[in-house]
Design brief:
Blueprint: E1 6-11, H1 15-26, E2 30-36, H2 40-49, E3 57-59, H3 62-67, E4 73-76, H4 83-92, E5 96-99, H5 107-119, E6 124-126, H6 135-143, E7 152-160, H7 165-170, H8 182-186, H9 188-198, E8 206-209, E9 214-215, E10 221-229, E11 235-241, E12 247-254, E13 257-261, E14 272-279, E15 296-301, H10 306-322, H11 332-352, E16 358-359
Parallel strand pairs: 1-2, 1-4, 2-3, 4-5, 5-6, 7-11
Antiparallel strand pairs: 7-12, 8-10, 8-16, 9-10, 10-11, 12-13, 13-14, 14-15
GO molecular function, one term: nucleotide binding
Pfam families: GFO_IDH_MocA, GFO_IDH_MocA_C3
Family: Belongs to the Gfo/Idh/MocA family.
């Protein structure tokens, strides 16, 4: 572990905290300093269930982590409705903020969070783990290859999972007072970010939600989709749902080739990720009943799982801010979060307006 390991505190014992507590422990430049819950009993149980070091401090309130002067940064996996309060409070306590997605209920709330981070000189990053996998720059290299891929024309993303009756009745993700964005916020966020990633984060001109949105009795979205449109003719679609079999797909189509993968949120295996690409340069005349040749599969290995790589990158940024160089926080990450939130807000507005087109205003 690095001598200047960034000391993390975690606000809350959500299920994803299990993965992140392990990731923080595995990252070479980070250490888990504290875990908290609204009750000390729950925090102690979390520590025991996850085999945390006896040196990790256990707190029965979120405030206690923020008041701990040894904590450099916090990971916040709380319900979305609580993000504004606790992210702002963390920034005001000069804690760097790694915030679980969706980062806010709307872009106005996100702006207040980012403003607090900037005012207090702390780093902000959202918890979109898949962006930190080393296959992402490899895929971006392909999309930028005009010889093999050509001009990007269309992107399609789909994330679904059938969570079951217990989830539908009890999960915070279907409770309007906790995670009011439902499937759109939970997994639609991933779809939107993937599409924006493919187009180098150029915002679409407009979005049009697809007919057929499904909500529960409390009005929380369980299933929805949308199309996104750019002035140059590019188009994208996404679909997210808690109601269908598990799918983690993205496909990008160019004038000369295509890229696809079926596990873009979570690779099938921790130590490598794959993607497929096909190009007209590789294809002879397609014979009846077979492709000639088959698409190319690329394998990209990684030393650490993507969640560890995310923690490592965030800790690197924090160290640059708090270290001897005294650099300012990197602004690229909050910009990406804001663009994602803008599109998400527009999709939600289109649904609420009866599937009318909604223009994106940066």
């Amino acid at each position: 572990m690095a001598e200047t390991a960034i000391r993390f505190g975690i606000l809350g014992c959500a299920q994803v905290s299990c993965k992140l507590s392990k990731a923080i422990t595995q990252a070479p430049n980070a250490t888990l300093h504290a875990i908290s819950s609204r009750s000390i009993d729950k925090a102690n149980k979390f520590a025991a269930d996850n085999g945390l070091s006896p040196f990790v401090k256990i707190y029965g309130s979120y405030e206690a982590v923020l008041d701990d002067t040894d904590v450099d940064a916090v990971y916040i996996p709380l319900p979305t409705t609580l993000h504004l309060k606790w992210a702002v409070m963390a920034a005001e306590k000069r804690k760097h903020v790694l915030l679980e997605k969706p980062v806010a209920l709307n872009v106005s709330d996100l702006d207040r969070i980012v403003e607090a981070c900037e005012a207090n000189g702390v780093q902000f990053m959202d918890g979109t783990m898949w962006m930190h996998h080393p296959r992402m720059p490899k895929m971006k290299q392909l999309l930028s290859d005009t010889h093999r891929f050509g001009q990007l024309k269309s992107i399609h993303s789909c994330i679904t999972y059938n969570a079951g009756p217990d989830f539908m009745n009890n999960s915070i993700k279907v409770k309007p007072d906790l995670d009011a964005l439902g499937a759109l916020g939970d997994i639609g966020w991933y779809c939107i970010r993937a599409i924006l990633w493919a187009v180098d984060y150029e915002l679409p001109k407009k979005v049009v939600a697809l007919h057929g949105t499904v909500c529960n009795e409390a009005g929380v979205i369980l299933s929805c989709g949308s199309s996104l449109h750019w002035e140059d003719g590019k188009v994208a679609t996404f679909y997210c749902s808690f109601l269908t079999y598990i799918t983690f797909d993205i496909k990008a189509l160019g004038t000369k080739g295509s890229l696809s993968l079926n596990d873009f949120v979570q690779p099938f295996l921790e130590n490598y990720g794959t993607f497929s690409e096909a190009s007209e340069l590789d294809y002879m005349k397609i014979e009846p009943g077979k492709w000639a040749p088959t698409p190319n599969e690329h394998v990209v290995s990684n030393e650490f799982p993507q969640e560890v790589l995310m923690v490592k990158e965030f800790a690197d940024l924090v160290e640059k801010v708090k270290g001897k160089l005294g650099l300012k926080p990197e602004k690229a990450w909050p910009i990406l979060s804001r663009k994602t939130q803008l599109v998400l807000d527009a999709v939600k507005e289109s649904i609420e307006r009866g599937y009318e087109p909604v223009e994106i205003v940066p």
